[in-house]
Amino acid sequence: MAKQTVAEQFVDVLVRAGVRRLYGVVGDSLNPVVDAVRRNAAIDWVQVRHEETAAFAAGAEAQLTGRLAACAGSCGPGNLHLINGLYDAHRSMAPVLALASHIPSSEIGTGFFQETHPDQLFRECSHYSELISSSRQMPRVLQTAIQNAVGQGGVSVITLPGDIAGEQAPERSIEHALVTTRPSVRPGDAEIDALARMVDEADKVTLFCGSGTAGAHDEVMRFAERVKSPVGHALRGKEWIQYDNPYDVGMSGLLGYGAAYEATHECDLLILLGTDFPYNAFLPDDVRIAQVDVRPQHLGRRSKLDLAVWGDVRETLRCLTPKVRAKSSRKFLDKMLRKHADALEGVVKAYTRKVEKHTPIHPEYVASVLDEEAAGDAVFTVDTGMNNVWAARYLTPNGRRRVIGSFTHGSMANALPQAIGAQLLDRRRQVVAMSGDGGFSMLMGDFLTLVQYDLPVKVVLFNNSSLAMVELEMMVGGLPSYGTTNHNPDFAAIARAAGAHGVRVEKPKHVRGALRDAFRHKGPALVDVVTDPNALSIPPKISAEMVGGFALSAGKTVLSGGVGRMAQMARSNLRNVPRP
């Protein structure tokens, strides 16, 4: 066997683990690894303009596939730029391996040029963060890092000095079989029996679902039918549970809509399925609560539980459903379905009235048209802020579409970088970045990455020249908005200057045509839509503490919803409700 350098061995292990792309920015300490990638046909180097983009792109790829993805940064400032995207990947439970290359090993601890301590810096946003200080640690440390990322779901970081990367790897290094998939986890019989008793004792059961219901749609529907339960969801559960769901009562939380809040508060038993929903103010404190989660550390950290069940949602429901008695009464379910339909229908008019004449353009209208024009298997990446609201309320899931965002970490500027990772995974699949002007301009340099790799990402820019969600937060806090206005250029002109398709839309009647033209364009495209900065959103249920200094007169001007085709879906579900 020909001798290998540590860098070559590093790259070979990544390939064995299924990694096909390494996102990053080159730099001196990283050069041995980048050169090893160049000479390995099984993996590509993806050159981005900012390392934060590299981490976001890898995180998006990992979320879409469930498999390991990787990114890299050079010593000091280079790998420090990874940290925000790695926080997002870690909190999204995306298996990502990050390489933080380091200064020469002999200089560590001397205050050398660009010296940091990456093995310490990344500990909070990783399951595993270790320094390779000797070639003899390879490949065991890297294999351990991979298994931590895959097995626990999240980030592992390897710090590798550039000089060690260039050394010869030991001839008899130990390589073992890599774990690249996660097992199913079944709860114990005692927990299943206890949950079945709780369900049988309750007259009114509500299910509240999160991202842990991925792959469990059929099981949730069968259980809901058996116990006649309304089914609500958190934002990260929307894409997995809302489609083909005759029990849907919408979403709870700050971006919520419909009757999910009522359903979770008026039941006898609330079952939290695969959700780490962080807003305990929206959870009841006077009903019995059971929680099912594959991560035991999530159990009970948001609300007081009457029963904690450690297991996959799918495996748990497969075991549970046959054990519970079928309920015959639909009274509670039908009441919640009617409330849900009424709530949605009442607010739809807020964005449909004279919408084709209103300028600046209603962002709700743009999101609704986008939902209609986008492909049935599109991947949407969504910027944090008001775009989360429009995505939550207007994108219609169908079991094939995906919606990726910084939904747990809440970072700005995530949509464009995540779209890069999604599109490189499959160039034939439609990828749409729902960007805000604040987020897009923050990492706008990586629009050039789309052009450089001819990635057909479609950026739909909701351009209200403001940080609208921050303005809303200030209003709720009783503060005047300050420092939230952006003086923006013509982003479409910038896109054209970069070599992409770019169009600016200022009238509602041009929205649909502009989107269709962008989707027909074979390369990268940007649609810069000038939207109304006064289109804000408030949750369907607000406490006095939430309102704070938010004046009632101002509240009347704020849109509390508008949910596109979901109102039609809710009404169609009512066809199955018996009439008195």
UniProtKB/TrEMBL annotation:
Transmembrane segments: none annotated. Residues 192-320 form the Thiamine pyrophosphate enzyme central domain. It holds the Pfam family TPP_enzyme_N. One of its GO terms (molecular function) is catalytic activity. Residues 383-529 form the Thiamine pyrophosphate enzyme TPP-binding domain. Belongs to the TPP enzyme family. This is Pyruvate oxidase. It comes from Streptomyces cinnamoneus.
